[in-house]
Amino acid sequence: MNSCPAADTIQPVLDDFSFYISFFQDSSATASPSPPPSSSDMPKGRRRRDTGAATAGNERRRKRRKIANLLTSIASIDVQHESQRRESDDDWELSLEENHHQKAEAVLDHYCRLEESLTALENDAGTLRSKRIRLTASASAASASAEGEGEADAARGIGGHQQRRLWVKDRSQAWWDRCNHPDFPEAEFRLAFRMGRATFDMICEKLGSAVAKEDTTLRAAIPVRQRVAVCIWRLATGEPLRLVSKRFGLGISTCHKLVLEVCNAIKTLLMPRFLQWPDDDDATQAKSRFEAPSGIPNVIGSMYTTHIPIIAPKVSVASYFNRRHTERNQKTSYSITVQGVVDPDGVFTDVCIGWPGSMHDDQVLEESALYRRAATGILKNTWIVGSSGYPLMDWMLVPYTHQNLTWTQHAFNEKIGEVQRIAREAFTRLKGRWTCLQKRTEVKLLDLPVVIGACCVLHNICERRKEEMESGLEYELVDDEMVPENSIRSVSASQARDNIAHNLLHHGLAGTAFF
């Protein structure tokens, strides 16, 4: 390190102190003039003045000598400090150079060791490649011998088991093996899967082509019946995937994958067949069956909207916040909506799934595909009966909601309530049969509409095949209905509702509950 700048910086300081020291020395020299005249030769007053001046001069000289000594000491201290600093800089340079040499030696040593390790790894890799070639040859020989053991052993999966070369955790499938056995009691099977064995077999047959997988050299494929059973049991019980995994002896991620695969297969293959809008013949039958108990003509469906609880989403949280459920349960609630139209048997003919829980029933209706189809005139001269949460339109028939109703209007509300109750009871059975709809699930928000749609399809299958619900599965449906701001959106529909109410009362179809 170059120390010349440090020397340059200290020189002006020494020059400055030398200036001050010489200045004070000159002052001391000039302050000692020739001896003053004798006091006897001076007047008395002048002698007193000269004595005082001499005393003050002596005091000033003493102070200047002290200051000069002090500045000399400071200068010597500063020179000593600069000398020490130079010595410290030299020591630091030597230490830095020594550390540099030590680190360089350590890096070279580490590089040599690393090179030796890489050489050893290359040798080990060559050895492993040789072993793998030998193992592959052995596995091929074992596979060839296993294929010759006979078709009976291959059907039982013995050959596939011998070919397995990956470690798989040993999980017990005793519960599923017992349920899948022909001697398993029908009542217990129905309680576990919410349907009889015949209905379950029919679903497996319909979905077999979509969910079946082939065996591989690594492992045997999961059978179709087990795949479908995992999905249906998960939807029926709403149990977490951890328990599903223990029940069926499969991994948690495998169970989650199976649930989504089977639900998508249900949507693709079964929904077009078991959940569809009625054709002309079915619509005619629905009108007559709805009119028989209520007296209201041209009704082809009953509508209801419910909420499915969800985990708080990561985006648009406020949109899914359910204020009414939160206030009732004193617990923060988030939900999505399910709007459904059912026929006289409680079978869904149209569903709209997935709109945020903060939306009212009339808002969900306006966003549905049914609303867009109705705008094209497909529902002309027909009614869909809804609750007070929907607006009165040319194809939507709802009860009177204003105050001070007349007898005729009360009678009409009573009859329309009977039709609307069909949809409400259908949703009660839907949530009671498929418990996963009653509580928050681990399914992602994007996948949830597919899962709920699969539940609606399975509900229709059970209803059409007259599958009875087991006792203890009843569910109390609680959904708030808020009257829309614009509750009457068609003058002609309002007049038609008044005519229907008049005919019900004056033709003896209104009943006697009100009276």
Automatic annotation (TrEMBL):
Of the GO CC terms on this record, one is: nucleus
Q: Where is the DDE Tnp4 domain?
A: 304-460
| Keyword field contains Phosphoprotein | no
- From what superkingdom does this record's organism come? Eukaryota
MF terms in GO: hydrolase activity; metal ion binding; nuclease activity
Its keywords, alphabetically, are: Hydrolase, Metal-binding, Nuclease, Nucleus
UniProt region (Disordered), positions on chain: 27-63
Q: Where in the cell is it found?
A: Nucleus
The cofactors required by this protein are: a divalent metal cation
**Which Pfam families does this one have?**
DDE_Tnp_4
Q: According to its UniProt record, which protein family does this protein belong to? A: Belongs to the HARBI1 family.
The name under which this protein is listed is (wild Malaysian banana) hypothetical protein
